Amino acid sequence: MVLTPLDLGGSTVLVTGASSGIGRETAILLSELNARLVLTARNPVRLEETRLLMSGNGHIVEPFDLSHTAEVSDWLRSQVSRCGPLNGLVHCAGTLLMSPARFVRHPDAEDLIRVNLLSAIMLMRGFCQKGCHAADSSVVLLSSIMGLSGAASMSVYGASKAALIGLSRSLAVEFAGDRIRVNCVAPGMVQTDMLEQFRELLSPEKFDAMERAHPLGFGTARDIANAVAFLLADTGRWITGSTLVVDGGYLAR
Predict the structure, then answer these.
(1) Is 80 exceeded by the pLDDT of residue 145?
(2) Among 157, 175, 230, 250, which one carries the catalytic annotation?
(3) How many CA atoms lie within 13 A of 11 on its CB side?
């Protein structure tokens, strides 16, 4: 038997946004690394599709709308009462808003910040409570290269993703004494449904230019899931408050 420091046997990990894209691929990979998963997103049918793609047994499917931010902390504690303390939390759920600043509608900006940022704050409020996390637990928040590099028409989205980086740094310091590590992964453009949204919004020329801006081309959801697993497992035991950029060279240009 080959031993790997990425093995997550005996761990229970909650993954948000697990119905598609990076969240789904992360859940699949973590199950292959022997973790037990609690999967959440709004769509129960797609969550069940994710579960059927996973390895192992004992995974829990729990539909929930994270935009109901006032309920998030209590909801997380209710999950812990069913599955026991969490060893990990991966917050992949998020939404996209692409609009010039002069045309941004207040309800749209408010909805995006609620899902992308406020839900993360409230998840962490629940996670840090006594009995909700195991010893030496790990949290990974999905940020974006748009939180590190400006782009036209991406101001609100980029602000929400930059805020996650700031949040993770402060929480890393605050929770170090509780042995909770908090990090971010900042993906570049990855072949998911969100990339298809960009394809529909941009001209073919602009979309091709966006791909060329990634020297290694667009990534895959598995590329990001690998980074998440690295931070969750013992391979990331001495890493906290960091942002792991996985962007095919976008920020190196």
Answers:
(1) yes
(2) 157
(3) 27
